[in-house]
Structures are given as structure tokens and as C-alpha cells.
Specification:
The protein has five helices and nine strands. Residues 1-48 have low confidence and may be disordered. With 212 residues, it is of the alpha+beta class. The chain has two domains: 7-34; 59-211, Glutaredoxin, CATH 3.40.30.
Length: 212
């Protein structure tokens, strides 16, 4: 078998040295990266989505004529529901379930203050609200106010509402399209949980017992 020429042996030697050098460089680079990773661990990525802020300060008129603010409800959980007294279905059904939940809670009901905020201040006066909420449960406080005050509190609770004109053109026969979420606020006025308007009173009470 013929021996490789000196030129070929020289080329092979150069190639071997180059491969060894590349390997050493690669190993050094990997080591440097690992050292940096261990010395400076990667920080957690900041979350891009923040929880929605629900609730806030308000000044409204209670169904007994008193002017109240959000501070007047501190110390107890609030169940906050937005609606109106002329509501044909969802509002009376939701208030009935809230009343059932209060009955189911028994002694724990003292820790909860249900609040019904009208989205129809044009028709829902304090006197009308009083008759309306008393029909469901005396623990419920009805709240009304000026159009601007209602707008502000609805915005704080991220509640949608809009007037729907009557088909026959009766200016007093309109309906109100509105959100129907029942909010649970903690004793400091911070959002804690919520219920849909389809939640029955027994289910609501069972969950409230775990949250109060």
C-alpha cells in the first residue's frame, strides 16, 4: 500500500488541528453560555394581561331617600346587581334568587348586603325602588341617582346598559338592555367573585358559604 505523499499528510494534519480547535472553541462557548445562565437566571416574563378592575367609589340615593357612598357598605360583603323596576323577566328572577340565597344562608346572611342599582333613573325614583325591593327581601337596598351618577357607577362596575324605545312609540314604554351579572364584593369594596343571572339561589348560597 502506497504511503501518502508529504503534501497529503500535511493537509490531513492541518484538517485535524482545525477540527480540534473548532471543538475547543465550541466547548468554551457552551461553557460561557451555561455560566451566564447559572449566574444570571432568566427573569419571569411579565404577564401581558392584568385582571379587570371592577367596582369603585360612588355616591347614590338609597330607596329610603338617604344619600350614600360606597364607604357606607364597608364591613360586609356586597352582592351588587344592576337592573330596573320595569324589567319584565331577568331582574325579578335574579332578585328572587338572591332572596332565596339569603334565606339559605340563615345566620351568615348578616355578612352580606345585597344592592340593586337601577339603570333607569328616569323612572326609578326612591319611592318606586322601595316598593320594588321590599317585595323581594327587606335586606336589599335599592339605589338610584342622577343620570350622570348612574353612568359613573355603571362604568366602575363595567356594566352595559342602553334604552330600547317602545315599538309603539310610547315615550314611557321603553325597555332597558343591560348586563345581568351579580357581583360579589369583599368587605373592603374589592371584587371577589360573580354569579350569572341564571344561578339559582341554592347554588349561590353554597358558593357564598365558601367565600364569606
Amino acid at each position: 500500500m502506497n504511503e501518502p505523499s508529504p503534501t497529503i499528510r500535511r493537509l490531513r494534519m492541518i484538517r485535524r488541528i482545525s477540527l480540534i480547535g473548532c471543538g475547543l472553541i465550541l466547548a468554551a462557548a457552551v461553557g460561557l453560555i451555561a455560566d451566564r445562565h447559572l449566574s444570571h437566571p432568566r427573569q419571569a416574563e411579565p404577564t401581558q394581561t392584568q385582571p379587570l378592575q371592577i367596582g369603585g367609589a360612588f355616591t347614590l340615593t338609597a330607596h329610603d331617600g338617604r344619600q350614600v357612598t360606597d364607604s357606607d357598605f364597608r364591613g360586609r360583603h356586597m352582592l351588587v346587581f344592576f337592573g330596573y323596576t320595569y324589567c319584565p323577566d331577568i331582574c325579578p328572577a335574579s332578585l328572587s334568587e338572591i332572596s332565596t340565597a339569603l334565606d339559605e344562608l340563615e345566620g351568615l346572611a348578616d355578612k352580606v348586603h345585597p344592592v340593586f342599582v337601577t339603570v333607569d333613573p328616569e323612572r326609578d325614583t326612591s319611592d318606586r325602588l322601595k316598593d320594588y325591593v321590599d317585595h323581594f327581601n327587606p335586606r336589599i337596598t335599592g339605589l338610584t341617582g342622577t343620570a350622570e351618577q348612574i353612568k359613573q357607577v355603571a362604568k366602575a362596575y363595567r356594566v352595559y346598559y342602553a334604552k330600547v324605545p317602545a315599538e309603539d312609540g310610547d315615550p314611557d314604554g321603553y325597555l332597558m338592555d343591560h348586563s345581568s351579572v351579580i357581583y360579589l364584593m369583599d368587605p373592603e369594596g374589592r371584587f371577589k367573585s360573580h354569579f350569572s343571572h341564571q344561578t339559582d339561589g341554592e347554588t349561590m348560597a353554597a358558593k357564598l358559604k365558601t367565600l364569606l
